[in-house]
Amino acid sequence: MRPIPRIAALVAVCSLAVAVHPQLRAQQPGALRQAQGNPERSRGVTLTVAVDRPGVRIDPNFYGLMTEEINFSYDGGLYAELIRNRTFRDDPTQPVHWSVVKEGGDGSIALDKVPVPDTALTTALKLEVPARSAGRVGAANEGYWGIPVKPDTTYRLSFWAKAAAPDQGPLTASIESTDGRTVWAHANVGRIGTRWKKYTATLKTSGTAAPSVTNRLVLSTRTPGTTWFSLVSLFPPTYKDRPNGNRVDIMELLAAMKPRFLRFPGGNYLEGPNYENRFNWKETIGPLEQRPTHLSPWRYRSSDGMGLLEFLEWAEDLGMEPLLAVYAGLHIDNGARILTGDELKPHVQDALDEIEYVTGGTNTTWGARRAKDGHPKPFPLRYVEIGNEDWLNRGTATYDSRFTMFYDAIKAKYPSLRIISTMRTQDRTFTHTRMPDLLDDHFYVTIPTALSQAHLYDTYDRKGTKIFVGEWATNNPRTGDTPMHAFALGDAAWLTGLERNADIVLMNCYAPLFVNVNPGGRQWAVNLIGYDALTSFGSPSYYVQKMFSSNRGDVVLPASFDPLPMLARDDIPVAPAPPPPARPGAPPANPNPGPQGPFDGLYVNATREDGSGDVILKLVNVQAIAQPLRMDLRGVATVRRNAVGEVLADALTAVNTVAEPRAIVPTPFTIADSSASFTHELPGHSVSVIRLKTR
Ligand code: AHR
User: Fold this and answer.
1) N or C: at which end does the chain have fewer Cβ atoms within 10 angstroms?
2) What is the residue with the minimal CA distance to atom 5 of ligand 1?
């Protein structure tokens, strides 16, 4: 965190601290005396943009996504599988998320250690229906907080099964309400034989089925006997109709952000809670029945339905470049086991194999394997990150040697790949024996820190190692599933600083990306996109990213406010803190952590788009009051009338939810009299993007 330069004297008006930026004060002695307490609006400010002095270029891949299995991001999230605990390994003691259905009959379900031969399926669900039973008996899956039903929708069911006696059944599959009273769709699956076999069926809802989540999948029979099930899977329609694919609504939200890269598979998920549960990519490819599943560091079991190839296809479907993080010997275990030297060597080879799986031709071992898995065409790859947050979990002392092993092996085979170190710019005493191409900075910050860090990289050594800001969010105090508008203001201010410093910051991505908002779905407070089984929504911070990423621009233009209103700590946006946990004897939490100010009241980044010639202004007003601006575009022959823009403005606590997914969204506007010099007012607590046509 950058210390805030002290201002010699704050200009106090009406006992409220409002100051002028020191540089501007030098240029404009006594120019600014703003009353922050003015309930109407602030005095005018001029924004000067030097269109004829293009500065640094912004990497086309500047905006991307960071992802991992956290908060039910894939299982119960993006990955469209609807059956929870489909391979019965979530809990070794009981078939969690499954229940027995008995309607006029009798029967039971239980876990049984009966493997399916030649697969990774070790455990089955045994359904026993005694001879005396006469009614309907079955096994029901509750899904990830329900099974979403929509009208006119076809669901693809598959499962492995075998029976104790020949021709057991017939078996019926149904999607029905949790109380069993309404059957939305059903299919007769036929009779089950005594050898393990994969069965498939489709189930279609009618055009009148009301959208709902309080539903279950039931596999049932009216015939006494014993049946074993494994890998029970149910898919709704997926994005681009990919088998084993992704949820359409969430992919559409992501597509609207126009992300250019996907950092995966983590985050902590790459490292795993221990060696056995690292992201072992070789166990995440191929048919689903060959994937053993593993425990995520976020304390639930991952189905690994979102495996390496699915990550790559997700990237491909949205036109994103993969940014691959490879396992580097560290785990989320406080350093209990760190692999180095000879012990790490096989994992360096794993990384090379992984890169070959991603990029290799079908004449290579792992490229051929990718083709066998269904994707002959290689994927693009330019960046590989070695590990994740190796400054944690006692990883620092061994990171240089671990990084060097990966660096040497990867550069020898793939000299054009750019290697990212997980050491941060603030780890100044860390020495790399091999110079990384980029450092990965991570920031989870309060609003005051986000505002002050809008200037973090202004003073970074221009000859220093380039930066990938691989995780960031204004999320503190940690409250809520998704950010409130106050956090989005911090995010937007921070992003103006990242764009302005695009000569050294090449790429950035917010984290975490997803949260399932159901009780128990969240391990991390404040995430970009929320959902339940039926509905998804973008947060105010999502809309900031969407606005900025769709209006990136290619080259930064010098832009400055005159005068720049300054705010005291008491005047910046505040996110209400959740009540502190009751811990008898604990010292009271600091109610006012982080930088104390003064803070800029306005933030800007101006860019120009090569193709269209448009000048794009990104403007953030963190003042409570509206801010009239005189726009002064220098060095441009033409600025057309009717410029268009979008503004995100609302109460600081405004959020979107499943119940109100679009409570706060950007509003489009037109500026009829736009020209090289025009006025425009920024609402209080707002983020605006304006596009000015110069051709
Ligand atoms: O984004 C959540 C977690 O924060 C990531 O898994 C980890 O890299 C960071 O500590």
Assistant:
1) C
2) 267
